[in-house]
Amino acid sequence: MKALITGASSGIGRQMxxxxxxxxxxxxxxxxxxxxxxxxxxxxxxxxxxIPMDISSTYNCMELYHQLKNEKIDILINNAGFGIFGxxxxxxxxxxxxxxxxxxxxxxxLTKLFLKDMVKRDSGYIxxxxxxxxxxPGPLMSSYYATKSYVLHLxxxxxxxxxxxxxxxxxxxxxxxxxxxxxxxVANVQFGVKSISSEKAAKYAIEKMFRHKRIxxxxxYMKVSCIFSRIFPxxxxxxxxxxxxxxxxxKHEK
Length: 254
What we know:
Blueprint lengths: L1 E5 L4 H12 L3 E6 L2 H8 L6 E5 L5 H11 L6 E4 L14 H29 L3 E5 L12 H23 L5 E5 L4 E2 L2 H5 L8 E2 H13 L4 E2 L3 H12 L2 H15 L1 H4 L1
Parallel strand pairs: 1-2, 1-4, 2-3, 4-5, 5-6, 6-9, 7-8
Helix pairs in contact: 1-7, 3-4, 4-5
């Protein structure tokens, strides 16, 4: 059994690799930072293959698939991603485009290519890591929220298509709220609510994935937030989200 995890060098991806290795899966770890992958590989008990790669590149995504297409990937976890804080007119376009390529394009390409193989053999799991942000508008993190909304809606649509095909292939979305990872430093924000550990988030996600949960949201308060996001007037949500985001930016403004 083999699991492929992107964004595996730290945070949730790292913890998922450890959990799946404990479950007996050989793991293929993909991330930009080779040293971090090598360090993680030493901690795992099953076979490990590391692929240092920037998957924001379309070419690299295609190359990754061609390297692995004959290895029968049982689990694909699209975890790589990052965020950017700031007003849309002030954020850096190049960084935003890199984020879109990582958060959207890489997820789209890898899901499509590996899903086709899984459907042919009628088995496999794909877990796309989005965010609770996927349910909301995100002033001051507009591009990031939009990328995660794409991941959620794409994955849900594929899920339904597979249901109509009576496929045994699973696809689902992990939508955590604040998690204690490097995300905060990269996005240059600090959360206004308590974060959960990356270990707890990863364990919950893997458990629900194996139970074929369509949308996976850890913690009761994030579940409640997601429900309210669907029933509150959109204009009110925008105002609430702006105030919440503004508090996150305290670190950014220091």
